[in-house]
TrEMBL record, chain A:
Gene3D superfamilies per UniProt: 6.10.250.1280, Fe-S cluster assembly (FSCA)
Family membership noted in the UniProt record: Belongs to the MIP18 family.
Name of the protein described by the UniProt record: MIP18 family-like domain-containing protein
Origin: domain of life: Eukaryota
Single GO BP term: chromosome segregation
Domain MIP18 family-like: residue ranges: 50-113
Keywords recorded for this protein, A-Z: Chromosome partition
UniProtKB/TrEMBL annotation, chain B:
Residue ranges that the Swiss-Prot or TrEMBL entry lists as coiled coil: none
Keywords from the UniProt entry: DNA damage, DNA repair, Nucleus, Repeat
Name of the featured protein: MMS19 nucleotide excision repair protein
Biological source species: Brassica carinata
Signal peptide stretch: none
């Protein structure tokens, strides 16, 4: 068992103040459609009024550690496709797969089933980038991972609400 | 004897530590009451307790002593014998040395020391003994939390109540306090400890006293807490808030000048920290110190204090200066807490010692600003650093100037002329003329930074002008120096500001903002000694007014000028400056009012109205003037329309009326005399309508009539009864002179109504609507002439389709005969008679108002056309509402008629038209909901409490049975609509009491109403009722019983296409259902999850957000193996 944390002293960033510039379409207009956009997906992942995905290793949220930013989410509502690119805090972070799995589970639970979800590690930020990407986007392997009760428990722990 | 027996019992109970705390409290209470009643004396108690107080068993002895102490605490206000007190205090003092019983001893001492103003007080000698014993034998920090608190309280009490005795003890007390505080960490204890230090400092003010000699140690013990930081922020809610404790610490630090050599360096060091809390606390504390330590002691720190303070100001100022409307009367930038405290400290220091100002005046950084200010002309162009310099320096100078007249003089003497030179503003020459050609060259270069500085200084200085009564007492020469400087420049300053405003264009609001703000500052000097002369003041007003009248669109400039004028108006009113008020009246008010009157100017009408109403509401005399102007404007526009058919005029009229309703009426309570003017306005409206006999042109819009009705109704609503009477009388006269009385003679038969094909003329329609509004607004006490014919008139008019008439009739029925005193309409016509006329029975033998009446017959379609039928239903609803609200039984029969209309066929077998049924269903909404337009508190309706509940209990059972027996789907739907109206307007507690019965009907209603999009609003209100029952404990059982049906219904509603809020609420309800027992809801998880998953793809974001939450919640009750 390796004692100690992988990244003992991460840099914590201040959370950028988010201004909700999207106007909710007015209540009177029942027919207008609010398309799912970048900010909404980011909110799903980050906004604390829903749930925080926490770093498995630290009590900070992924946004505070800049693992996820608003720009790292790409959404195409018409093609039902979303791609999330995350940046592990250190190159050898063994938690990258767990973070990716959390992101995937969170999005699977929160987006309409028609969406195809693509999770990637930001290029050049992880030692075993290709392996992690492959693992995260392999349907079989994800399904298998979620059969593992220990892993599911860990993911649920990460997705559980944080009481700030 | 019995008392004594009980006593032993209670004593045993208290001493026994194995018993529960409630037991202990009970026995305490019992003994205390017998002591209070005098059944038992304190002597007897002590004798009885002898064994407990002296036993060798430590635990029992401690409890015994504690019991005695508690008793004394109970008897705080009961007179006792001095000897008893003496011996008791001796006893407790002795026990202080014994650590096992220290709590009892401390409480006992405290209870005795606290005695004040009753017979039996501890003597000074005894108090001294207590203090000595405590100082010598108690190690405070080794005690438990509660005991420590007692110790500090005891110290505090001793110092407060026996100062002389404590002075005798001298050093001992200071040592004891030092020792007690050392290492204390609990906020409540610290709070008292800080106060103790303060008391000590007050007790030993002499420089050779113990506090002076121990100052260094004592300060060390308290300074280690600075700045206060709570490590455990949550949990203990009884704890003391940080602010209070920090205030206590600050008072302790500043309590004695002997702390000065230690305190100021420490505070300055903490001020330089990067922690905001430390900065704020240090600034606050420095201010306290400045007050308490005195000038001579503070003086030596000035050279360190000033740079630190300056740094704090620079660090806490943000550079984004707002040129917006809202900052016209404020500094214009955000003030953080640090900034506020720094400003307070600076002001304090300057006020206290003028020599501090020397540092400010000679500061290089401050002086440099004046040299660099002319480098940039526009604020946006300035670098952030120079913006910061300007803002901070303007703050420093204005705060220093505000501190005293003296400092203001110095600041102005040093800086103002320099500033004026930089800005190129010239002095008035000795003859009072300006050198004009020079002005014209310099006016092109206005430096925003300089203007800002200048305005800040002017704004500050205006507060220093003493009010007229103070003025006489202070010598003129001493304070006028800054005034004379300003007055030398005033004319050119005004000129400069004016040109700034005038040269500004729309894309640059800064010019306009600074110009207007400058003019405002110049216009706000108070009193006779103002540096701005009357002619200059008038010039300011003229400039601002001309901005308002010249602009034809609502620009920033226009709004700024208006706000400035309003500010000046209220300023004049506040300080009752009669001379300025006259100028204001002549220049601003009359100008604007004449614009309203003329209605031929470039300015759009709504803008004139807005400007006039804003400006004039600053002073009652202006209001009077304005309403007069409005009256005239209304009359001339109205007659212009009637005679020339000018549609522009009638549009102006409606805008004017809207202005009266929206701007003036809400401020009725603030402005004296407004009611009177408005009543006059209403009467002249009637006069004008009366005099324009012929309308040569027809209206093509309802707008004017609507506005007139609203204004008239509201004016009557707010007027006093006497004024109401005069308006009603006037209106009645107009009615009688019109062709309307002809309608009163029409008999109430279908044939006659059919014969009345011709519509009312435009004028009659206007008169009728206005009169109805008057009646709606009238209070029950007002007297209405000739009620019988009016009832008839309204009856005929609503059958002709004038809903306002039906509302008026409802209001009349509601208020008839309820006014107190016999001098009103009730003599003319009683409720019975009125009802007789309305319901007009076909067989006049018995008084009923059910389906046999003429109205009932029309409603049910026995006679008359479909139009008559729907109108009659609507009218009946309003009449019913009037009756319902006053609690009259007749409403029941009306409800029956309405329900009859909801059946698919009437009693003679003829099918009812769908539109009839729809109107009848909506009638229930009219009956139950709170109306905005009539029959509410504003319009003096008679409202019996619980009337909704009563109607609910009468109608709901009938509606339910009708639903069960309904024959056609349409009828069923309509019955559900009616039921939904009743259910959703009744208070939720009523629903909760009947959940069991109602829930199935509500669920059925929800599914019936979800079929057609027409009923979406009704559906939503019914859904809200359902959601109300889900969360309440009262409804829980029946919700649980009906869970399957509720879930089925809600699942269907999650995809309701016509209203987003319905979907959103349905999903929220589903999430709430998770509170039900697990076994009850678990079977439905698949169904719910499926529906919610579908809702994840909802077109509306809000629905999706709810769906995500709901899905997460429902997933968590499913098994772990299906994570999605």
């Amino acid at each position: 068992m390796v004692s100690g944390l992988i990244n003992e002293n991460p840099i914590v960033y201040e959370i950028k103040e988010r201004r909700d510039v999207r106007a909710y379409s007015s209540n009177t207009d029942e027919l207008s459609v609010d398309a799912i956009d970048q900010l909404e997906v980011f909110d799903i992942l980050i906004a604390h009024h829903i749930r925080d995905i926490k770093d498995p290793e630290h009590p900070y949220s992924l946004e505070q550690l800049k693992v996820l930013t608003e720009d790292s989410v790409e959404v195409d509502d018409t093609k039902s496709h979303v791609r999330v690119t995350f940046t592990p805090t250190v190159e050898h972070c063994s938690m990258a797969t767990i973070i990716g799995l959390c992101v995937r589970v969170k999005l699977m639970r929160s987006l309409p089933p028609r969406y195809k979800i693509d999770i990637r590690v930001a290029p050049g930020t992880h030692a075993t980038e290709a392996a992690v990407n492959k693992q995260l986007n392999d349907k079989e392997r994800v399904a298998a991972a979620l059969e593992n009760p220990n892993l599911v428990e860990m993911v649920d722990e990460c997705l559980s609400p944080s009481f700030e | 004897m019995a008392a004594l027996n009980n006593l032993t019992e209670h004593l045993e109970a208290f001493v026994d530590v194995t018993r529960s705390p409630t037991h202990h409290a009970e026995s305490l209470k019992a003994i205390a009451t017998s002591l209070e009643k005098g059944v038992l004396s304190i002597n007897q108690l002590v004798v009885e307790m002898d064994m407990y107080l002296t036993t060798t068993d430590d635990v029992v002895r401690a409890r015994g002593i504690l019991l005695l102490a508690e008793m004394l605490d109970y008897l705080k206000s009961k007179p006792l014998d001095n000897a008893v007190v003496h011996s008791l205090v001796g006893f407790f003092t002795a026990k202080l040395a014994e650590w096992r019983s220290v709590r009892g001893a401390l409480s006992g001492c405290l209870a005795l020391i606290k005695r004040k103003g009753v017979a039996g007080v501890v003597t000074a000698v005894d108090a001294e003994a207590v203090a000595k014993s405590m100082a010598q034998s108690i190690q405070v920090q080794s005690l438990a939390l509660y005991d420590r608190k007692l110790c500090f309280e005891l110290l505090e009490c001793l110092l407060e109540q026996y100062p002389e005795a404590m002075i005798n003890l001298g050093d001992l007390m200071v040592y004891a306090t030092c020792e007690a505080i050392d290492g204390e960490k609990d906020p409540p204890c610290l709070m008292i400890a800080f106060h103790v230090v303060e008391l000590l400092a007050r007790l030993f003010p002499s420089p050779s006293g113990p506090v002076a000699s121990e100052a260094s140690d004592l300060f060390e013990f308290i300074s280690c807490y600075f700045p206060l930081h709570y490590t455990h922020t949550k949990g203990d809610e009884a704890s003391i808030p940080r602010e209070d404790l920090s205030r206590g610490l600050s008072l302790a630090i500043s309590s004695t000048p002997f702390f000065e050599p230690y305190a100021i360096p420490l505070l300055l060091e903490k001020l330089s920290s990067s922690l905001p809390v430390a900065k704020v606390d240090s600034l606050k504390c420095l201010k306290d110190c400045a007050v308490n330590y005195g000038v001579s002691r503070m003086k030596k720190h000035y050279k360190y204090l000033w740079p630190a303070l300056k740094d704090a100001l620079y660090a806490s100022t943000k550079t984004d200066l707002s040129f917006g409307l809202e900052s016209l009367t404020s500094p214009g930038f955000g003030m953080g807490e640090i900034h506020r405290e720094a400003v307070n400290l600076l002001q304090r220091l300057v006020k206290q010692d003028i020599s501090f100002l020397g540092l400010v005046v000679e500061d290089i950084r401050v002086n440099m600003v004046f040299d660099t200010i002319s480098r940039y002309s526009r604020y946006e162009e300035m670098l952030d650093t120079s913006k910061l310099e300007v803002l901070v320096v303007s703050q420093i100078l204005s705060v220093s100037a505000r501190s005293s007249v003296e400092s203001c003089n110095i600041i102005f003497e040093t800086f103002f002329s320099r500033l004026m030179n930089t800005l190129g503003i010239v002095e008035k020459t000795s003859t009072g003329d300006l050198v004009h050609n020079e002005i014209s060259t310099v006016s092109t270069r206005l430096y925003h930074g300089g203007l800002h500085l200048c305005i800040e200084l002017l704004t500050t200085s205006k507060d220093l002008i003493p009010s007229s009564e103070e003025c006489t007492s202070t010598p003129e020469s001493a304070q006028q120096s800054w005034c004379s400087i300003v007055s030398r420049f005033s004319a050119s300053l005004i000129e400069a500001f004016t040109s700034a405003v005038q040269s500004s264009n729309d894309d640059c609001s800064a010019d306009a903002y600074l110009g207007v703000k400058g003019l405002l500052a110049m216009g706000m000097f108070r009193g006779g000694s103002s540096p701005v002369s009357r002619s200059e003041f008038e010039k300011i007003l003229t400039t601002l007014t001309s901005i308002i009248t010249a602009n034809s669109a609502k620009t920033v400039k226009w709004e700024l000028a208006l706000k400035a004028l309003v500010c000046m108006g209220s300023f004049i009113d506040r300080y009752s400056e009669s001379e300025k008020a006259m100028s204001y009246m002549a220049i601003v008010v009359e100008n604007l009012v004449s614009l309203v009157r003329s209605s031929h100017c470039s300015l759009p009408h709504p803008m004139i109205l807005e400007a006039t109403s804003e400006v004039c509401s600053t002073r009652p005399t202006y209001v009077e003037k304005m309403v007069e102007g409005f009256e005239e404007a209304f009359c001339s526009s109205f007659s212009d329309f009637c005679v020339n058919g000018n549609f522009k005029s009638i549009e102006n009229c409606s805008q004017l009326l809207e202005c009266v309703t929206n701007k003036l009426l809400p401020r009725l309570t603030e402005i004296d005399g407004l009611e009177k003017s408005l009543v006059h306005f209403a009467i002249s409206m009637w006069n004008q309508i009366e005099s324009s006999v012929v309308f040569s042109y027809d209206f093509n819009g309802r707008e004017f009539v609507e506005a007139a009705m609203k204004t008239m109704g509201e004016i009557v609503g707010v007027a006093s009864v006497d004024s109401q009477n005069s308006i009603i009388q006037k209106a009645y006269n107009v009615i009688s002179s019109s062709t309307l009385p002809a309608m009163e003679s029409i008999p109430l038969t279908v044939a006659a109504l059919e014969g009345l094909q011709r519509d009312l003329s435009t004028r009659d329609e206007l008169i009728l609507s206005l009169f109805a509004s008057v009646i709606i607004g009238a209070s029950p006490k007002a007297s209405i002439p000739d009620v019988k014919s009016l009832v008839h008139l309204f009856l005929v008019s609503f059958l002709k389709g004038y809903i306002r008439a039906a509302q008026a009739l409802g209001s009349m029925i509601n208020k008839l005969g309820t006014g107190s005193g016999g001098t009103n309409i009730s003599t003319d016509c009683s409720l019975e008679e009125a009802c007789d006329i309305i319901f007009h029975e076909s067989d006049s033998s018995k008084t009923i108002c059910g389906s046999e009446t003429f109205l009932g017959k029309i409603c049910l379609g026995f006679c008359g056309s479909l139009d008559h039928q729907t109108r009659a239903i609507t009218g009946l609803a309003w009449i019913g509402k009037g009756l319902l609200m006053r609690g009259d039984k007749r409403v029941n029969e009306i409800a029956l008629v309405l329900m009859e209309c909801l059946k698919s066929t009437n009693s003679s077998g003829n099918a009812l038209h769908p539109s009839t049924m729809k109107h009848a269903a909506d009638a229930f909404l009219t009956l139950m909901s709170d109306s905005e337009v009539c029959l509410n508190r504003k319009f003096h309706a008679v409202i019996r409490p619980l009337y909704k509940q009563r109607f609910f209990s009468i109608t709901v059972p009938i509606l339910e049975s009708l639903i069960v027996n309904s024959q056609t789907p349409l009828s069923r739907t309509m019955l559900h609509v009616a039921l939904a109206h009743v259910v959703s307007n009744v208070p939720v507690t009523v629903i909760l009491d009947n959940t069991k019965k109602l829930l199935p009907v509500i669920l059925e209603g929800l599914s019936v109403l979800s079929v057609d999009s027409v009923h979406k609003e009704t559906l939503f209100s019914l859904l809200l009722v359902l959601s109300g029952t889900l969360t309440d404990i009262k409804g829980q059982q029946s919700v649980s019983d009906n869970a399957h049906r509720i879930i089925e219904c809600l699942v269907k509603l999650t995809s309701y296409p016509h209203l987003m809020v319905v979907r959103e609420t349905a999903i929220q309800c589903l999430a709430t259902l998770l509170e039900l027992p697990h076994g009850r809801i678990y079977p439905f998880r698949r169904e719910v999850l499926q529906a919610v998953t579908k809702a994840l793809d909802d077109p509306k974001r809000r629905v999706r957000e709810e769906a995500i939450k709901c899905r997460q919640a429902w997933t968590s009750i499913s098994s772990r193996s299906t994570p999605f």
